[in-house]
Each structure stands twice: as structure tokens, then as C-alpha cells.
Specification:
- The protein has 13 helices and no strands.
- By secondary structure, the chain is an all-alpha fold.
């Protein structure tokens, strides 16, 4: 139940971002989001943060970079993408995250790859391409890709490298880690916010904009993190990770129910390919892990 709610709230981030279009500019959304979470974490977790500071200080620049990459780059790309594409497309493309994490781990740390993992990655990647080309693969020849879908690919790739890079994080309490990542995200967002203002694109939130921000701060950013951490404690990281596959399903359902977007045949094909690829890669990964631990 905790993991189902976690992915439900994460999927709601795309819906809230879509509803905020025309009511708050993307950089305002991203900046307020991570600055608000940073303040909340400091208020309630400052004792833990101070206790972890000796471990944080030597890796400070690394943590700030991770926050900028995984939080700011992902959020900004997502919220700008939703100006140009549907929430369904954004949600299903996020379903490819586990495979991009796998690819980033291979690039950064030369993680071993099994045949099933390679096939699974390719299957999911083709599903991502189907979404980006809106079901018409002939668009590949002319590189006719929707700008919003291209931005979502940037967001997913950035989050994949961020997740893989967390492997080298210092051993500190989750609240301290989250706080430092939010500091990095806020520092990275501020110059982008200034650039948006200089261009005259800043849109101060109205009532709908603030409602979207309140949802994004409370549910996808705070409550989901607590639920996910508790769920990992209860059933383990491997089983918990599989529930991320619910994110594109929730996203598609919410997009249809809340936004009235159309669920087309190519969405179903791409979603099936992405989920099948993830399951195949996960199966191959577990077999490879068991083989590595045999005496």
C-alpha cells in the first residue's frame, strides 16, 4: 500500500505540472518546490544534519551536483516538457527510468550486463522511441520529434545518471541526504529562475498555480519519500524497486481521468514494451546476481 501510494503521488506530479501550465512558470514551480522541501527538512531535521556534517563536508560538492542533476534538471525538463506534450506521454516516458538507471550504471561503473538485461533495455528503449515518435516510426527519418517528448527524454536520462551516481553517496541519514540534495537543487534553480525573469517568461502563481505547488511539495516531494523509505525497510529494496513500474500506469489513468487526455493505441503498445523490457531486465539482473554469489 505504501509503494502504491508513493507511485500514485509521483505520477500526480506530472498531472499537477500540466495543470500549472499558464498558472505558474516552470522555473517558479521547480524553485519553490525544492526550496520549500529544503526549509521543511531543516526545521525538522537540523539536529540530524548537524550530526552528519562531518561526513557531508568532504562530499559537499558531489552532493550539491547530484541535487542539481537529479532534482533541478529533471524537474525543469519535466515542467517545460508538459508545456509542449501530454501528461500521458510524460508519464509513460518516465516508465523507462529503471532502464536508463541500468545504462548509466554500466557507463559510470562498468556494471556487468546479462543477455536478458540487454534485450530488456532495447525493448524498453524501442517503447520510449514509439512514444517520442507518437506511434509513427517514419518520423525517425526526418527526426520529427515533439519538443516536449525530447525534453522528457533529457529528464529521464538525467535522473538515470543521478540515481546511478547515488552509489557513491556518503553514509548519512536519509533526511540529511535529502536536505543536501535540495540545497544543490535550489542553488542550481536560482540562476535559471533569474534567466527566466530576464526573458520575461516568469509567471507568478495564481490560485491554481499555488494549489499545484502545494500538492507537489507535500505529496511527491515529502510524503512519498517517507513512504518509500518505510516500504524499503518492510520488504527490501529489490521488491520495492519493481513498484516503480506502476508510475506510468498511474500516470496514464490520472491523465485520462483528471485531464481528459486520450489514451491511444501507440500508448498501449509503448507501455507494454517498456514494462516488458523492465521485467525482463530485472529477471536477468537477479539471475546475474545469484550467479555472482555462487561459491
Amino acid at each position: 500500500m505504501l509503494l502504491a501510494l508513493t507511485t500514485f503521488f509521483w505520477a500526480g506530479n506530472s498531472i499537477a505540472g500540466k495543470l500549472a501550465v499558464g498558472h505558474a512558470s516552470p522555473m517558479v514551480l521547480a524553485t519553490i518546490r525544492w526550496a520549500s522541501v529544503m526549509v521543511v527538512l531543516y526545521i525538522f531535521g537540523r539536529k540530524q544534519i548537524y550530526a552528519d556534517w562531518p561526513a557531508i563536508r568532504p562530499r559537499l560538492s558531489y552532493l550539491l551536483f547530484l541535487g542539481a542533476l537529479g532534482f533541478t534538471v529533471f524537474s525543469v525538463a519535466l515542467y517545460y516538457a508538459l508545456v509542449y506534450t501530454t501528461a500521458i506521454n510524460a508519464s509513460i516516458l518516465q516508465g523507462g527510468m529503471p532502464l536508463f538507471v541500468f545504462a548509466a550504471s554500466f557507463i559510470l561503473f562498468s556494471s556487468r550486463i546479462g543477455m536478458a538485461q540487454a534485450v530488456g533495455f532495447m525493448l524498453s528503449f524501442v517503447g520510449v522511441i514509439v512514444i517520442a515518435m507518437r506511434g509513427d516510426l517514419s518520423r525517425i527519418i526526418s527526426l520529427d520529434v515533439n519538443f516536449g517528448d525530447a525534453l522528457m527524454l533529457v529528464a529521464v536520462v538525467a535522473y538515470g545518471f543521478y540515481t546511478a551516481a547515488l552509489r557513491n553517496k556518503p553514509r548519512i541519514h536519509w533526511a540529511s541526504l535529502m536536505f543536501m540534495l535540495c540545497v544543490g537543487a535550489t542553488l542550481a534553480a536560482l540562476p535559471m529562475l533569474a534567466f527566466e525573469a530576464v526573458r520575461g517568461d516568469t509567471l507568478i502563481p495564481d490560485t491554481w498555480g499555488w494549489l499545484a505547488i502545494i500538492y507537489i511539495v507535500i505529496f511527491p516531494s515529502l510524503i512519498s519519500q517517507v513512504f518509500y523509505i518505510k516500504a524499503v525497510e518492510l520488504i527490501g529494496a529489490n521488491r520495492a524497486g519493481l513498484f516503480i513500474n506502476l508510475l506510468p500506469l498511474w500516470g496514464a489513468l490520472l491523465s485520462v481521468a483528471v485531464l481528459g487526455e486520450a489514451f491511444l493505441s501507440y500508448h498501449a503498445i509503448a507501455l507494454a514494451m517498456i514494462l516488458a523490457g523492465i521485467c525482463l531486465a530485472e529477471y536477468g539482473g537477479r539471475r546475474l546476481s545469484r550467479a555472482n554469489h555462487r561459491p
